[in-house]
Amino acid sequence: MSAPLLPEGAPLAATLAAALVLGVGFGFALERAGLGSARKVVAQFYWRDLAVLKVLFSALVTAMLGVFWLSRFGLLDLAAVHVPETFVGPQLAGGVLFGAGLIVAGLCPGTACVSAATGRIDGVFVLLGIFSGMFLTGLILRKFERFYTSTAHGAWILPELFDVPYGAVVAAVVVLALAAFAVAERIERGAR
Amino acid sequence: MSLRARSVLAFATFAIGGLAAVAGSSQPPLAGDEVAAVDLAGWLRERREKLCVLDARSADAFDAGHLPGARRLADSAASDDGDTVVVYADRDVDAGVADALRRQSAARVLRLHGGLRAWNDEVLFPVLRGDASAGQRQRFEARAALSRYFGGTPRQLDPGEAAGRTRSRRGC
Amino acid sequence: MSAPRTPRAYADPYVAGVALGLVLLAAFVLVGRGLGASGAFASTAAGTVALVAPDQAAASPLFAHYLGEPGPWLEWLSVELIGVAIGAWLSAKLAGRVRVEIERPETLAPARRLALAFGGGVMMAAGAVLARGCTSGQALTGGALLGVGGWLFLGVAFAAAYVFASLLRKVWS
After folding, report:
1. Shortest alpha-carbon distance between residue C42 and chain B (Å)
2. Which domains does chain B have, with CATH numbers?
3. Are C36 and B9 in contact (CB < 8 Å)?
4. Which chains touch C (3 or more CB pairs under 8 A)?
5. Secondary structure class of B53 (helix, strand, coil)
6. pLDDT higher for A8 or A72?
7. How far apart are CA A13 and CA A18, in angstroms?
8. What is the mean predicted confidence (pLDDT) over B1-8?
9. ipTM of this model?
10. What is the pLDDT of residues B95-149, one digit of tens each?
11. Are the beta carbons of B172 and C14 separated by less than 8 Å?
């Protein structure tokens, strides 16, 4: 088990250098896909152009299969990979708020950064909004702290929730994604 | 991308995903000469005959704590000890250590997968998630019984605990 | 390299998606964590508040989280997001897509577009705080690691976006 190559406690400079390089790749791929364009992102939700779904799910599936097989061959220690925590209640509420904000703004935080970096002023305003929103939320969050920390499940994964092998969930996600791609292609052909 | 390329990509993804379902666990399978901590614990509990457990660590580490019934590798002549020899260290034992033992002895030589660390995590102090299902709880009972037999403590994890992790690992 | 005059077409979404997935996988392999975006804003806000009103910052469950080692100004996600901007600019430059403009439907006044962009940003920030991540940190990273929260957020955010899209049809048509 060699990977992660820079686990927790690795030199900060090396970790931050990796952050910069990975960020460049992330931004490059998002821009190539066209997700720095608010109209292209929003088109997803009017069934006109389903690039958001295609990019998100093909990235998710690629990384998921990579993680599974690297771990399976003993090349990646899954226990050392941080799984974002689950807070059921706050994530339900946050998901609704985020989804609404996504349509109002036309961009999500990552793609807004791409949009701003490629000259779009609306992207800059989304970033300003997010920054202001962080101030606001951070300052009033104390009043909602009980809700904010409720229904905590820590690092909780679907194989634990459904009590099935990891590989079975991986296969199910692949089937789901391929079905979604097939439907997306059909919808786009119909929309044209 | 052409339709043909898309079909090939889709089929390859389907195949790699399907193989994941066949593989099941995300953990690598044990090597042929490895034994899992829980299996070794079962053997020790049923007092399997002609089983010899060898500690490949230093004398100090051995004195500070070792597996029940284990002897130091350096002190023992493994050659005439039973027909199964299990050798362990803090983590995985080098395959070379096991090979050396095999040259001296006709016994089946196995390495404890994950070493003493796995013994502690899986046998002595197994953890049950607070949000586990009834089936998961039931299966955990067997592990808990094994843990108590060896003087360990089965633990229940309050899932909220994980929320207080170090910040550097937090995602977005 | 000189940029072509007419912007090049965007890449195939599946190819771009697989490339993005490989970057995410590289993040898991290199540093044992995924990608993100909203956390960069949270840590920067935390650092700013800590300069002006340290008590307020320490008392906030959101800001306090970013004030430990190595401090809010050396947050991993902030550095990563600087990389995102560089990578995006590089890609757009090579394809002749860098253009200063306010991207909007023709029926939407520029000032209104900017106001909505700002307001939507505020809403997304609040949502991302509650969800402990945004599309990148929770949906993509959590989703790839089969996190329950990631899939929950992905499903709810997509569903909510579709509902609000039908309510805001006039804005984006």
Report:
1. 9
2. 34-120 (3.40.250.10), 126-155 (no CATH)
3. no
4. A, B
5. strand
6. A72
7. 9
8. 91
9. 0.97
10. 888 898 888 888 899 999 999 999 999 999 999 998 899 999 999 999 999 999 9
11. no
